[in-house]
Amino acid sequence: MSGVCEICDKKTTFGNTVSHSHRKTRRTFKANIQKAKVEYKGKIKTINICTSCLKSGKVKKIV
C-alpha cells in the first residue's frame, strides 16, 4: 500500500531521534494512511487517505 494520501499528498517525513546525551540518528514519521471506500468528486472509489482528511470531512466515507 502506498504511503501517500491521495487527497492532501501527505507522506513520510524524516527527522532525528534525539537521545538523552543529545546524539542524533535519522528516523521516519509515517502518515496514518488508511484504505477506505469514499465518495470523492461525485464518484465512489477506494483510495488511500490519511485520517486527518477523513476526520475533517474532505471526503464522505461509504459504510
Describe this structure in words.
The structure is a single chain. The chain has a single domain (13-57), classed as Ribosomal Protein L24e, Chain: T (Roll), CATH 2.30.170.40. The two termini are 21 Å apart. It contains 1 helix and 5 strands, in the order ββββαβ. A hairpin with a 2-residue loop joins β3 and β4. The radius of gyration is 16 Å and the shape is elongated. It is mainly beta. The mean pLDDT is 94. Helices cover 10% and strands 48% of the residues. It has one helix spanning 51-56; strands at 13-18, 24-29, 33-40, 43-50, 60-61. The strands form 2 sheets. It has a 3-stranded antiparallel beta sheet with strand order 4-3-5. The longest helix has 6 residues, at 51-56.
Q: What portion of the residues fall into strands of 2 or more residues?
A: over 45%
What's the overall average pLDDT, rounded? Answer: 94
Q: What's the CATH H-level homologous superfamily? A: Ribosomal protein L28/L24
Uncertain segments are none
List the helices and strands and how they pair.
Elements: E1 13-18, E2 24-29, E3 33-40, E4 43-50, H1 51-56, E5 60-61
Antiparallel strand pairs: 1-2, 3-4, 3-5
